[in-house]
Amino acid sequence: QEFDFFLVLDLExxxxxxxxxxxxVDAKTMEVVDLFHRFVRPTKMSEQxxxxxxxxKYGELGVDRVWHDTAIPFKQVVEEFEAWLAEHGLWSxxxxxxxxxAAFVTCGNWDIKTKxxxxxxxxxxxxxxxxxxxxxxxxxxxxxxxxxxxxMVSMMRQCGIRLMGSHHxxxxxxxxxxxxxxxxxxxxxxxxxxARRSKSNLRNVEFLxxxxxx
Length: 214
What we know:
Blueprint: E1 5-9, E2 19-26, E3 32-41, H1 47-61, H2 64-70, E4 72-73, H3 74-87, E5 102-106, H4 110-122, E6 133-136, H5 137-145, H6 152-159, H7 170-187, E7 195-197, E8 205-207
Parallel strand pairs: 1-5, 3-4, 5-6
Antiparallel strand pairs: 1-2, 2-3, 6-7, 7-8
Helix pairs in contact: 1-2, 6-7
Keywords: Exonuclease, Hydrolase, Nuclease
Pfam families: RNase_T (PF00929)
Protein name: Putative exonuclease domain-containing protein
């Protein structure tokens, strides 16, 4: 593998990010090393809109109270996330802000291509350097197995992996995506960067796999 560790990420929240879960997977042992999980308090949404949204989304899953008790602004989430990465030796401010022997893995391009830059604008922070490239699991899956999977659930079904927890609770989805990553690593898949943002224009993204899910 090109990387020693994979950071599996699956955000929740359409208007603003509401949940930010990341699992570290050791590329060699395929074991989960650690978990980072924060609920995110929106910056621009009205209190009324937030309450309605959280009640609907997380109320159904029974975690709306936990969300209200623990959610913090995205800027603070990023600061705590960077401290966590640094603890694991995967990032340092001095090294151009890029990841050290690690890469993000997402199920699709939306999380890092679209949502994180949007949230950075809303939260009035610069886009961190470590969000300049990522691995879209769908593309690696397509090229390795030679079959198409449009999402996490279809990947799991095709691999015969049972869905655990609640679909669309970010932390559970991240754990389920991690189980697909572990299966693929065990089957011999090599994970390479599938998308890279242009440094001169952050909106421009180059997709590095010719055969990919569009």
